[in-house]
Write a structure and sequence with these properties.
Elements lengths: L4 E3 L2 E5 L7 E6 L2 E8 L1 E3 L17 E7 L6 H4 E7 L7 E10 L4 H5 L11 E2 L3 E9 L12 E5 L7 E5 L3 E3 L5 H21 L6 E4 L7 H10 L3 E6 L2 H9 L4 E4 L5 H8 L4 E6 L4 H8 L1 E9 L20 H8 L2 E4 L9 H13 L7 E2 L15 H9 L6 E5 L9
Parallel strand pairs: 14-15, 14-17, 15-16, 17-18, 18-19, 20-21
Antiparallel strand pairs: 1-2, 2-5, 3-4, 6-7, 6-9, 8-10, 8-12, 8-21, 10-11, 11-13
Helix pairs in contact: 3-4, 3-9
Length: about 400
């Protein structure tokens, strides 16, 4: 049911909290008493106010996938589109920060849902403030409230999201955004598939990245010994700072040789996101009853197939010989556990028990990732392997005319 309705031929919907408002509205020839609620006439954008008093524009910038390709720059274009109108149970959110994920190019290539055809929105996650909302949504949210969300089409200045799919936040901070996909993936996958026990050896690949940083920390909280792979000494230093017992710069050390020498009994749990040769190496180093969790295979995403070949011919025998297992994890299949995971991670962060490292491109050649235009640079930056922590893009919203 939409919140939009007509009063004297004008379209209106709820856009503020319930303490201010009108007492009566005329429907047909009858005067009907309604609760005190503030409403905004959506017929005129200058009447549609955000909580800081600047008018919300009638149009906005948004990144749209216009053709299917794993090359993000070829697949996606920046376009001007109308600002969407929320329905009865929806929030209109002004994005302040959006997150970059390795799977952004899987989505632009149409790999997740082949039935979806361009154009469609890109991006999976964002945080910002509520600037408009439907009548039902107003029971739990108010204009000005900080919220986060995980859903399609996040690369936009404004988004409409069902209220039930958002997470209330104490404030708008980029650190909170790191938890939405990256943190939740590590938290839920390790809880469900890792079955971690004290003293076990855990190998995290791409450990200094957006989700790897959380896998390291959650494994340490389970009192495991953690090995983390990375591509530079600077990243190895970061891993050491968050508790990783054995950071490995695989460009400076021979990873298979090191694992064979220092961990002769093998690895109990592998948190794997690289694929290709890294997958093959990790399979060979699994311990008896070892478990591998595959959360991605970034090394192949930029190829036409999305995959790099792995040596699967002897995989059944290797698993059988060690009573080992390989399991995949895809976050949308575990959404029943999402709210509880977010609640716990937010508590840990607020208590200083969780590091949420953010990389906003301050060290990138062209500087900080600011504005939707910089999403393209941010994706390139990720695939060059330059980031430490979660890549986040800030969206600036200059104040428009004050009323």
């Amino acid at each position: 049911m939409s919140t939009s309705f007509l009063v004297s031929g004008r379209r209106i919907f709820l856009a503020a909290d319930c303490r201010l408002g009108i007492r009566n509205a005329l429907f047909g020839s009858h005067l009907v008493s309604v609760p005190r609620r503030s409403i905004i006439d959506m017929s005129y954008s200058t009447h549609f106010m955000d909580f800081k008093g600047s008018a919300i524009p009638s149009s906005m910038k948004k990144l749209l996938v216009t053709k299917l390709s794993p090359n993000f720059r070829d697949a996606v274009s920046l376009q001007t589109v109308p600002v969407p109108i929320p329905g009865d149970g929806d929030l209109l959110i002004r994005n302040r920060f959006v997150g970059i994920n390795a799977s952004d190019i899987n989505y632009s290539a149409g790999r997740y849902d082949p039935s979806v055809r361009p154009p469609f929105g890109a991006g999976f996650e964002g945080i910002g403030e509520v600037v408009g909302l439907g009548l039902s949504a107003s029971a739990h949210y108010a204009v000005g409230q900080a919220v986060a969300y995980f859903g399609d089409g996040a690369f936009a200045e404004y988004v409409v999201v069902p209220a039930k799919k958002t997470v209330p936040l104490p404030s708008v901070q980029p650190e909170f955004l790191t938890l939405l996909v990256s943190g939740a993936t590590a938290y839920i996958s390790l809880n469900n598939l890792g079955h971690l026990s004290e003293g076990e050896k855990v190998l995290v690949t791409a450990a200094a990245g957006g989700t790897g940083q959380f896998a390291v920390q959650f494994a340490k909280k389970a009192k495991c010994h953690v090995i983390g792979t990375c591509s530079s000494d600077i990243k190895a230093g970061f891993l050491k700072s968050i508790g990783c017992d054995r950071p490995v710069n695989y460009k400076a050390e021979d990873l298979p040789v090191m694992l064979h020498r220092e961990y002769p009994k093998g690895i109990d749990v592998v948190y794997e996101s690289v694929g290709g040769d890294m997958f093959d190496m990790a399979i060979n180093r699994l311990a008896i009853k070892g478990r591998m969790i595959v959360i991605g295979f970034i090394s192949g995403y930029q190829t036409g197939s999305g995959l790099k070949p792995v040596r699967t011919g002897t995989l059944p025998a290797k698993l059988l010989q060690k009573s080992a297992s390989v399991q995949g994890f895809f976050l949308p299949h575990f959404l029943s556990e999402y709210s509880e995971a977010m609640k716990h991670m937010l508590e840990m962060y607020e208590h200083g028990e969780l590091v949420c490292e953010v990389d906003m491109g301050e060290m990138a050649p062209e500087g900080k990732f600011l504005g939707l235009e910089s999403v393209f640079r941010a994706v390139d930056y990720m695939y060059l392997g330059k980031n430490i922590g979660k890549i986040v893009v800030e969206l600036a919203h200059p104040n428009s005319s004050k009323l």
